[in-house]
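Dear colleagues,

For the upcoming journal club I promised to circulate an example of a predicted protein-ligand complex. I picked one with zinc ion because it came up in last month's discussion. The inputs are reproduced below in full, followed by the predicted structure.
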Amino acid sequence: MIMFYGMYGLFYDPTFILVLIGLGLSVLASSGVKRNFNKYSRVATMAGITGAEAARRVLNAAGISDVSIESVAGDLTDHYDPRSKVLRLSSSVYNSTSIAAVGVAAHECGHAIQHNRGYVPLNLRSAIVPVADIGSKLAWPIFFGGLIFSFQPLLIIGIVMFLAAVVFQLVTLPVEFNASSRALKMLETTNLLYGEELTGAKKVLGAAALTYVAALAASILQLLRLVLLAGGGRRRD
Ligand SMILES: [Zn+2]
């Protein structure tokens, strides 16, 4: 049984368990990323080049010369910014010659290559960003208003807004998996990683991909919770 302390004091909300399951999946996935990243960030590659150098070589091999590579603060903050065509690597990737660093750098190059080649899911994802942003911010307040006033249209609007955020996470999956498969292919053909090293990079990138799967699962569980709460609200009328 789950008691939930809300605006009206303590009330019984069994659907809260869905949020907890989602949270558990996300925690498991992110600990998997940290474990794999830490393990392979201690193993240097035979090629001995840094993440930043590896990124430049992968981009060159892909015929991309208009993307700059910068260092960014924080851990696991690596990303490709399509608007300014900048590949930002965290310092533990930028300056490191480890398998993890080279793997992550190549993954971000995967996104730059997707952008360069006009990969449809990436463009679709960029187009959904603003809608998903608004949806994820306003879904709960609107839905909660619907619960308080027992007003069904607000409940439905809240659910639809949350759905936009779920669709965004769904479109993120092919984008992420594709970036990693492009990365591994490039690392192999450019001889930046050999044999066992490729297996290590695959593990790091596979663990990172799982965090997106967990985030999607958590969102779907939350969506299910909203639908259950909306149904329960109607029955009380
Ligand atoms: Zn990515």
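Two points we might discuss: Residues 195-236 form the longest helix (42 residues). The beta strands are 3-6, 9-12, 68-72, 79-81, 86-90.

See you all on Thursday,
B. R.
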